[in-house]
Design brief:
Length: about 425
C-alpha cells in the first residue's frame, strides 16, 4: 500500500508540475526573485564545496531556527561546508543577509529525478530538515547518500491526525531511518506512534534566540526618536487579519489618540494589498525604512525583512498574527524574549505547547475575537504595571527553556566526527 501511495504521489506531482511551476513564475510580479534561478527548482545546481552539511529551511521562520545552529557549527568547525536550501526568495534573502558564508540553493520540486540530480551534485554528508519539512521524494534520494535528521521537530495535532490516517506510508516513506529531535516529549511520543524509531526530546531552538546588543541599541535609538507616544506592534499578520486590526486601532485611537501602530505583514509580497487597505482607512502612513517618523504618522507599515526582531524592542505591547484567522499562529518567542507584553488570537494550534506554557505562567494574553483584542490592548496600554509584569513573566519562561541549540549541536557532532 505504501508503494502504491508513493507512486500515486509521484504521478500527481508530474500532472501538477506545469501548473505549480508557471504559478510560481507568475508570482515574480510581486517578488521578481521567483523568476530567477528557476533551474534550481529542477535540481540543476553547482557545488562549491566538498561533502557539505545540507540544511533545508523552507522559509524565513525555518532559516531563523537554523541560524544559531549554523553559527555554532561554523564557530567550532570553520572548515565544514554548509549548503542551505529554501523554497522561498524571502528565505533566500535571510540566508544571504545573516549567513553569508554558506551556499544557498532553491529546493527542487519533489520529484525523484530532480532530487537525485541535486544530491549527486552536492554529495552531502548529512541532511538537517528544519521542523517539519518532510518531502517523500527528497527523503528517498537523501537516504541513499547520507544520514537524515529532523531538527527542532514539531508536530501539531492536526498534522498528527493527517499522518495517522496514512500511518503505513508515514512509517515507511517519511520517518524510516530518520533521527528526530523533537521540541517536546508529547511531540516525541507522536513521532514514535507514526513510526519514527530514533526520537530524542531536545527542546526548541527558538528559545535560544535572544536580542543582540546591536538590536537593543538600535531599538532604543528608534524608540527615542518616536518620543513618548504609545506604540502597538502588530506582527506577522495574514490576509483577513489587517481589517480586524485596523478596526481595533480605530477604537483604540479614541482612548489613545497618539497611539502609533507598527504593522508587519507576514509576507512582504502583500505590501500592495495592505497599502490599499490602509488607504481606505485614511490613516497617515509611512513605510520609511529609517523609521524617522513625523509626529503625524499614525501607521508604520514595515515591508523589509529582518526588521521585526528589533521593532519588538520599540513597542509597549504586541499582537502576534496568524491567530485571528485559522492559520495556527506565529512565533511568540521573539516578543517574549524582549519582555514585551503580548496578545495573541485563538488560533494557535501550531504552537499549542508554547501557548500553554506562557498561559500557565501568566505571560501571555489571548483574545478570542476582535472585540476582546481591543479590550486586551486598551487594558495593557492603560496599566503599565500589568504590562511590565506580563512581559517579565514571559521573558522568564523563555529563559528557563534555553539550551536546545547546544543539545542539538552535541547530537549532530557525534555523527559529524564519525563521518
Amino acid at each position: 500500500m505504501a508503494t502504491l501511495l508513493h507512486s500515486l504521489y509521484v504521478v500527481l506531482w508530474c500532472v501538477l508540475l506545469p501548473v505549480i511551476h508557471f504559478g510560481l513564475l507568475f508570482r515574480y510580479r510581486q517578488h521578481p526573485a521567483y523568476k530567477q534561478r528557476s533551474r534550481e527548482r529542477f535540481g540543476f545546481v553547482t557545488s562549491t564545496s566538498s561533502s557539505p552539511i545540507w540544511i533545508h529551511a523552507a522559509s524565513v521562520g525555518e532559516v531563523l531556527v537554523a541560524e544559531p545552529l549554523v553559527k555554532k557549527l561554523l564557530e567550532h568547525h570553520p572548515e565544514q561546508a554548509i549548503v542551505i536550501t529554501t523554497t522561498t526568495p524571502t528565505g533566500a534573502d535571510i540566508v544571504a543577509k545573516r549567513l553569508p558564508s554558506v551556499q544557498h540553493c532553491y529546493l527542487s520540486y519533489d520529484l525523484p529525478w530532480f532530487h537525485k540530480r541535486f544530491v549527486k551534485t552536492i554529495q552531502p554528508c548529512m541532511l538537517l530538515l528544519i521542523e517539519r519539512e518532510l518531502w517523500p521524494c527528497l527523503l528517498a534520494a537523501a537516504r541513499k547518500q547520507c544520514l537524515i535528521f529532523l531538527v527542532n521537530a514539531r508536530l501539531s495535532e492536526s498534522s498528527f491526525d493527517r499522518y495517522l490516517g496514512f500511518k503505513s506510508y508515514a512509517s515507511k516513506r517519511l520517518f524510516k531511518g530518520i533521527e528526530v529531535f523533537a521540541q517536546t516529549e508529547s511531540e516525541a511520543t507522536c513521532f514514535r506512534l507514526l513510526g519514527a524509531s530514533s526520537v530524542h526530546t531536545l527542546g526548541n531552538i527558538k528559545f535560544d534566540v535572544t536580542p543582540s546588543d546591536e538590536a537593543i541599541a538600535l531599538a532604543k535609538k528608534i524608540r527615542k526618536s518616536w518620543g513618548e507616544r504609545p506604540v502597538w506592534i502588530v506582527a506577522s499578520t495574514h490576509s483577513g487579519e489587517e481589517p480586524q486590526v485596523l478596526d481595533v486601532f480605530q477604537q483604540l485611537k479614541q482612548e489613545h489618540p497618539e497611539l502609533l501602530l507598527v504593522l508587519v505583514p507576514r509576507h512582504i509580497e502583500r505590501k500592495t494589498e495592505v497599502c490599499q487597505l490602509l488607504n481606505g482607512y485614511r490613516y497617515q502612513c509611512s513605510s520609511e525604512s529609517g523609521f524617522d517618523l513625523d509626529d503625524k504618522i499614525e501607521v508604520l507599515l514595515v515591508d523589509e525583512l529582518g526588521k521585526l526582531a528589533t521593532l519588538y524592542g520599540c513597542a509597549d505591547v504586541a499582537f502576534v498574527g496568524g491567530s485571528l484567522v485559522p492559520h495556527g499562529g506565529q512565533n511568540l518567542i521573539e516578543p517574549a524574549s524582549w519582555g514585551l507584553a503580548t496578545v495573541t488570537g485563538p488560533h494557535t494550534h501550531n504552537f499549542s505547547a508554547l501557548v500553554e506554557g506562557l498561559m500557565g505562567c501568566v505571560g501571555l494574553s489571548v483574545a478570542n475575537d476582535q472585540q476582546e483584542l481591543a479590550g486586551r490592548i486598551d487594558c495593557l496600554l492603560k496599566n503599565p504595571d500589568n504590562r511590565i509584569r506580563l512581559g517579565l513573566r514571559a521573558k522568564e519562561y523563555i529563559s528557563q527553556h534555553r539550551g536546545a541549540t547546544e543539545r542539538h549541536y552535541q547530537k549532530i557532532l557525534s555523527h559529524l566526527s564519525t563521518k
